From TrEMBL:
Encoding gene (name): rbfA
Name of the protein in question: Ribosome-binding factor A
Coiled-coil features, chain-numbered ranges: none
Function summary: One of several proteins that assist in the late maturation steps of the functional core of the 30S ribosomal subunit. Associates with free 30S ribosomal subunits (but not with 30S subunits that are part of 70S ribosomes or polysomes). Required for efficient processing of 16S rRNA. May interact with the 5'-terminal helix region of 16S rRNA.
Family: Belongs to the RbfA family.
């Protein structure tokens, strides 16, 4: 990606973060939306926005099924967000926004939770083995 497209993508990411937080008041959007990446097409026609959504009611339920409704709200608000984005950006055209659930971040978080669980089980096993050795002596 060229430096110009990267700067534009960064600007879109910063502006959308504020707009989603401050302007989207849909009660179906219950989670905390994080924009992990924005990719702008070379012709500036589209901007693919990758999001993760942290729901307050779910323990690590970071999968697309748990967040389908929140993603639908963002997709329905894409036109409004594009209009608001065009008011703040100084470009001739404003790309159309396409929202995607960021599987990579969700998968990474799930793997990190699995590693932490495995480490805790290993620590418990090591401690119980040490206690058995101490009791046998």
């Amino acid at each position: 990606m060229s430096q110009r497209l990267q700067r534009l993508a960064d600007q879109i990411q910063r502006t959308l973060s504020v707009l989603i937080r401050d302007e989207i008041n849909d009660p179906r959007l219950t989670g905390f939306v994080t924009i992990s990446e924005v990719k702008v097409s070379p012709d500036l026609g589209y901007a693919d926005v990758y999001v993760t959504i942290l729901e307050p009611s779910q323990d690590g339920g970071m999968n697309i099924d748990a967040h389908r409704e929140s993603l639908t709200v963002l997709k329905n608000a894409a036109g409004f967000l594009r209009t608001e984005l065009s008011a703040t950006m100084k470009t001739r055209t404003t790309p159309r926004l396409r929202f995607h659930y960021d599987e990579v971040t969700a998968h990474g978080n799930r793997m990190m939770n699995l590693v932490n669980e495995a480490m805790q089980k290993t620590d418990k096993t090591d401690k119980s083995n040490v206690d058995e050795v101490d009791n046998n002596q």
